[in-house]
Amino acid sequence: IDIISVDDTIADDIDRKIRTSRAIRFIKEQLTPRERQIIVLRYGLNGGVSNTQREVAKKLSISRSYVSRIEKATLQKINSYLES
User: Fold this and answer.
1) What span, in angstroms and rounded, lies between the C-alpha atoms of 50 and 40?
2) Is residue 78 a contact partner of residue 25, using CB atoms and an 8 Å limit?
3) Residue range 61-71: mean pLDDT, rounded
4) What are 9-52's pLDDT values in tens digits?
5) Fewest CB atoms within 10 A around its CB: which of 3, 11, 15, 75?
């Protein structure tokens, strides 16, 4: 008998959609405007294009290291929220 292998990713797809929805809601409702702006610019959310830390720093007239610190702390906040 031939066995056909099927990749059943429905559960993973649903989990990913739920986590994405929760993350977007958290970004919109819980982050400060500066944190939100940096995350949106860095990862191209809302249909935008992702930018490097240097590009974000230039757009916001702040240092790249400051963008890096805010991004790191914000991603930790989002991760903590998603794990709770």
Assistant:
1) 8
2) no
3) 97
4) 888 889 899 999 999 999 999 999 999 999 999 999 988 899 99
5) 3
Residue 8: both structure tokens together: 């059943």
pLDDT for 9 equals 80
pTM for the whole structure = 0.79
Rounded Cα gap, residues 78 and 80, in angstroms: 5
Secondary structure (DSSP) of the chain: ---------HHHHHHHHHHHHHHHHHHHHHS-HHHHHHHHHHHT-TT-----HHHHHHHHTS-HHHHHHHHHHHHHHHHHHHH-
